[in-house]
Design a protein that fits this description.
The complex is a heterotrimer of chains A (about 575), B (about 40) and C (about 280). By secondary structure, chain A is mostly helical. Chain A is about 75% helix and about 0% strand. Chain A contains 19 helices and four strands. In chain A, strand 3 and strand 4 form a beta hairpin. The longest helix of chain A has about 35 residues. The two termini of chain A are about 35 Å apart. Chain B has about 40 residues and is mainly alpha-helical. Chain B has one domain. Chain B has one helix and no strands. The longest helix of chain B has 28 residues. Chain B is elongated. Chain B starts with a helix and ends in a 13-residue tail after the last helix. The N and C termini of chain C lie far apart (about 70 Å). The chains are: A mainly alpha (about 575), B mainly alpha (about 40), C mainly alpha (about 280). Chains B and C meet through loops of B and loops of C.
Chain lengths: ~575, ~40, ~280
């Protein structure tokens, strides 16, 4: 089943790479970018290109993000297993990998379908991109084949290369697999960022002859980092949902304990990838502004500005769900109960931050509403709508999340080092100083001109990162030789598991939403400033339209994921041999 | 208790200096001249 | 059973997000129309009005040149005074130095649009460049792509605002320009009567006008006797520059200059200037 799907995918990629070369042979490699007319966009079966390409691209990205992320943390968990000599880690890593294997074939399939759709619906654009990136597609295809090989070798040699030196060979294969996978993603990212902020071509789009220059656009590395982190968070979230489902369906206490622990680990990975994500996003946005103020304003202050309110709601629900799950986890240990009173304060910070974040700055209002509010900005809430307030809120929310996580870690361990109380004081002082700095920089942002406002958000970000880094370092020393209390894995409420379903649903939807924004900031250009989009789909759809479309894609993806989970489970079941005739 | 308060205050002062230094460095590195109190120099 | 419950829960979450996306204001952004219109017959006033439309429309100037402080707010400042002091600034080394005033303004404005980094207003440079590099994009290349005739029109508009003689040529016969459709797409046809303008921009919601009785802003009956046309224009384009005693600043939206078309603003000004305490003349 898997093999057949994979072969189909490979064949589709191959076709997509080879086919267009027949039509393009005549095109002069040194010519400027072509200017397509409305006639250059074929309709196939009554469909225009965009919905087809949008849906396929998003599906491919969901699956690719998942299958690229899983091997990353699987290798990390495998290594943890080797270092701690705890067999449970190895078993879990293997199980994660099994889920990802089933998804891989679908990734290849949607990738091939996407490539095919792109060439069918946007022949002129794809011809131009092929010309700019020259032979790179072939390298991409090679990398893809290498990735497939390594993935299968890594998975199927798991038990053969299990202990001793052989385990290290297995780990090396895993590292190599990740190196190839990450390169693969970076190459594909370069095509997307070239369309947003072209480089390596002149003003008319004539390639200057270096593929490397075309790849190194100003947005390439910010996007690489952003997608890398988001993939990890996303992969963790999906595996978490798998664990939660198995937990709910478990029949024995042992199974419950195993999947509870798996869900906890997956949630941890998701949060780990998620915490630095806003900062990567900030970098990406800053580079967009540096590249083109207009593009930045289109995203943050223009037609697309409302989307960031939706983003805030999604991120808010992700943070609330992840925190809720951690709070429920406090009940797993005796030591955790003493932290329960703290939860309400953390929750208060989260909710307050969330409310600030969803407060819009300016509203499109009817005259009656203007009259009722007394202006286009609310006199009291208006100031909460601007950037310093939002930055302050998001940093405080991240700090609160990190605190939840820290409390959870402390619940099962008691430090034995004599200076533990000093460590606690230093960490508490760190939180207080960072909070004051974040709030202070936020206030400072109000009283200063825009450049300072933007500038002041960097210290805020650094404060949050400083808390995370320093608190982790201090704790690492503080908890050396700590007394560990047993964790009652499996002692979790049913309700807590639903938090683990909110994460993948919100992540999936959010990813699609951000994809819509990333693609829309180009407005009516295929390749920004170089090649206009003259298709009937050159407009930016409304938020509602996009939201409905995104929901449909998410639903399809969820169906595919359920099927994948089922596939990975059905592999474990074995039908009983029918009893021999006249058996007894 | 007094020892705790003292350590906390010392640690807080230390972190405050640290964060101030970071703020100053970051703002200056961005080409935004700031005064001793971090207010923009007009 | 578990499967069903999990599925229903996930669907509910998904539905909540979708609903939220659908209750927000819906704006579709269409690409600008590419049809061309003939401009050869434009007179001076028409050229200035065209420049004003370009300023907030195709030129996208108001994206940054507004009161948010991203770039100097050119519509709010005393343009003549500001330009004079910039050209005299020893840091300025461009071609406008030493020319006669109106001409110097033309050269300076053109230069600032085509080579924005020749002179950077202190405090508005790209971060980290000590005001040596301007964040402003050149206006004659994509994505803005203004034609020479359009740049002339912008200069005419700005020279007019600065109150100096207009030195740019009128568009030559046969000049065409892309027909304007706002970047926000789905633009309504311009209002053609004062009632339509007042209705569209909701003036009567805050101002007492034709018996609307609203009192957030000053009543507009007899406004023509209190303010002249220019003062009215200022009061609409930059409402907080001068606030009538007894009224709150910050209430009136400051972006009517971007929202209104030049023709609508003129219609509204004609109407308001005519409200001299006697019977309103539509």
């Amino acid at each position: 089943m898997k093999w057949r799907l994979l072969l189909c995918g490979l064949a589709a990629v191959g076709l997509a790479v080879v086919l267009p070369h027949f039509g393009l042979a005549a095109e002069d490699p040194g010519a400027p970018a072509p200017s397509p007319t409305a006639a250059d966009y074929p309709r196939i079966a009554g469909m225009t290109g965009r919905p087809v390409v949008w849906a396929l691209a998003q599906m491919h990205l969901f699956l690719a993000a998942f299958v690229l992320a899983v091997p990353m943390f699987v290798v990390a968990i495998e290594l943890t297993g080797v270092l701690t000599r705890d067999e449970r880690y190895d078993r879990m890593a293997h199980e994660f990998m099994k889920i990802s294997m089933a998804a891989y074939a679908f990734t290849a399939l949607t990738g091939g379908a996407l490539a095919l759709a792109l060439f069918l619906f946007y022949p002129v654009l794809m011809g131009y991109l092929l010309r700019v990136f020259d032979g790179q597609v072939l390298i991409y295809a090679l990398l893809f084949i290498l990735e497939s090989l390594l993935l299968y070798v890594y998975f199927y040699t798991w038990n053969a290369l299990r202990y001793g030196d052989r385990k290290w060979i297995h780990l090396s294969i895993g590292v190599l697999l990740n190196a190839v996978g990450t390169t693969l993603m970076f190459v594909a990212n370069a095509w997307a960022t070239f369309m947003m902020a072209p480089s390596g071509v002149d003003e008319a789009g004539t390639p200057l002859g270096s593929v490397w220059a075309a790849m190194q656009g100003p947005l390439w590395n910010p996007l690489n980092l952003h997608r890398f982190l988001a993939n990890i968070a996303y992969g963790g979230a999906i595996v978490g949902a798998y664990a939660a489902y198995r937990f709910l369906a478990a029949r024995t206490a042992e199974e419950r304990a195993h999947y509870d622990w798996m869900g906890y680990t997956a949630n941890f990975i998701a949060i780990l990838g998620f915490l630095p994500l806003p900062f990567a996003g900030y970098w990406l946005m800053a580079e967009i502004y540096a590249y083109s103020q207009q593009m930045g304003i289109t995203a943050m202050g223009g037609v697309l500005a409302w989307l960031f309110i939706i983003q805030a709601v999604l991120i808010g629900s992700i943070l609330l769900a992840a925190n809720y799950y951690l709070w429920c986890g406090l009940m797993r240990t005796e030591g955790g109960r003493r932290f329960v009173p703290w939860v309400k304060y953390i929750a208060a910070v989260l909710v307050a931050g969330f409310l600030v974040w969803v407060t819009p700055h300016t509203l499109i209002l009817t005259p009656q509403e203007v009259l009722a509010i007394g202006g286009t900005n609310h006199p009291l809430l208006g100031p909460l709508g601007i950037m310093p307030a939002k930055n302050t809120a998001v940093n405080m929310m991240l700090l609160a999340t990190f605190l939840s996580f820290q409390l959870f870690r402390r619940a099962s361990r008691t430090p034995t080092v004599p200076w533990a109380w000093i460590g606690n004081c230093v960490i508490a002082a760190l939180y207080l100083a960072a909070t004051l700095n974040i709030v202070g920089a936020g206030i400072y942002g109000y009283v200063t001109p825009t450049v300072y406002k933007v500038g002041a958000s960097v210290p805020q970000v650094l404060s949050t990162l400083a808390v995370i880094v320093f608190a982790l370092v201090i704790e690492a020393f503080m908890y050396r030789g700590a007394v560990t209390r047993p964790v009652a894995w499996g002692r979790m409420s049913t309700r807590s598991q639903y938090a683990l379903f909110v994460l993948p649903v919100a992540f999936t939807w959010l990813m699609a939403l951000m994809g819509y924004i990333r693609s829309s900031v180009r407005t009516y250009w295929h390749v920004y400033t170089i090649m206009k989009d003259r298709s009937p789909d050159a407009y930016i759809p409304t938020i509602g339209e996009a939201g409905n479309f995104i929901t449909v894609i998410t639903l399809v993806f969820m169906a595919v994921i359920v099927f994948i989970f089922w596939l990975s489970q059905v592999g474990d079941t074995r039908q009983q041999a029918p009893a021999a005739e006249g058996g007894r | 208790m007094a020892a705790r308060a003292l350590v906390f205050l010392l640690a807080f002062a230390g972190w405050a200096v640290f964060f101030y230094a970071v703020d100053w460095l970051v703002m200056t590195a961005q080409g935004l001249p700031v005064g001793w109190n971090l207010m923009p120099l007009s | 059973m578990t499967f069903l419950r999990v599925t229903l829960f996930s669907l509910a979450v998904l539905l909540a997000y979708t609903l939220f996306a659908n209750i927000l204001p819906q704006v579709q952004s269409n690409p600008p129309a590419e049809e061309e219109i003939e401009l050869g017959s434009l007179d001076r006033a028409g050229q200035i009005a065209w420049g004003e439309r370009l300023f907030s429309g195709k030129g996208t100037c108001t994206l940054c040149h507004n009161k948010l402080g991203r770039a100097p707010d050119m519509l709010a400042m005393d343009l003549a005074e500001e330009l004079r002091s910039r050209i005299e600034d020893p840091r300025y080394t461009g071609a406008a130095k030493g020319l006669e005033e109106a001409e110097a303004f033309e050269v300076y404005l053109r230069e600032s649009m085509l080579e924005p980094s020749v002179y950077v207003v202190p405090g508005f440079g790209k971060k980290g460049t000590q005001d040596r590099e301007s964040p402003m994009p050149r206006v004659d290349v994509p994505p803005i792509s203004l034609t020479p005739a359009e740049i002339d029109a912008l200069i005419a508009f700005l020279q007019d605002r600065a109150g100096v003689e207009i030195t740019v040529p009128l568009p030559a016969a046969g000049t065409t320009a892309a027909a304007e459709a706002g970047a926000d797409g789905e633009e309504e046809a311009p209002a053609t009567t004062p009632e339509e303008v007042i209705d569209r921009y909701g003036c009567a919601a805050c101002h007492d006008l034709d018996g609307s009785g609203a009192d957030l802003g000053p009543p507009l009956a007899g406004i023509g006797a209190r303010l002249d046309r220019e003062a009215l224009r200022r009061a609409i384009l930059d409402p907080d520059a001068e606030v009538a005693p007894g009224y709150e600043p910050g209430l009136m939206p400051g972006d009517f200059g971007e929202q209104m078309r030049a023709s609508e603003l003129e219609i509204l000004l004609d109407y308001l200037a005519g409200l001299d305490g006697g019977e309103p003349k539509p």
